[in-house]
Known about the structure:
Layout: E1 2-6, H1 10-21, E2 25-29, H2 33-43, E3 46-48, H3 50-56, E4 59-62, H4 69-73, E5 81-84, E6 89-90, E7 95-96, H5 101-108, E8 114-117, H6 124-128, E9 135-138, H7 147-157, E10 161-164, H8 171-186
Helix pairs in contact: 1-2
Amino acid sequence: xxxxxxxxxxxxxxxxxxxxxxxxxxxxxxxxxxxxxxxxxxxxxxxxxxxxxxxxxxxxxxxxxxxxxxxxxxxxxxxxxxxxxxxxxxxxxxxxxxxxxxxxxxxxxxxxxxxxxxxxxxxxxxxxxxxxxxxxxxxxxxxxxxxxxxxxxxxxxxxxxxxxxxxxxxxxxxxxxxxxxxxxxxxxxxxxxxxxxxxxxxxxxxxxxx
Length: 210
């Protein structure tokens, strides 16, 4: 698969490296040709401009600061699956700086671009060497040309387990979860033991249950 990254920072480099190792052709794109070339060399990808990376991939990773995500996403051509891994973090109090980056991006791109939210719950250090069976929540509308299934395949290529998390309308919840967790980590807490091991522990009635 041909994958372009919009951005040449730590997240783009980490995910690009994993996909190169899985046999994909990856172009790292950035505003700085020098930084893009350095990142690409480290992981065995090729380098290009943002425009070149947007046009290169069947799949494009949006890995730029949230405040410029909508602007950069407009470079992506029709017929592309666009993975949004951004989080809009207000670092003053670790709350959301924007209600839903993914939905704003989806509204800004053409109707033929399928936006999928994924890979936003972990830092670049995790993606460089994911633990076995790490779950990757994926928010994407199934009616949009199977983009979520493509992203699920890329998650499996990293040794991870894709976790269907609903349509793109739920991406705001995924982004809020990431910001919430970041705030706890920064304050010295540990979120790893917060979730119960089974759905029944949430006290909800599951489909098919009386």
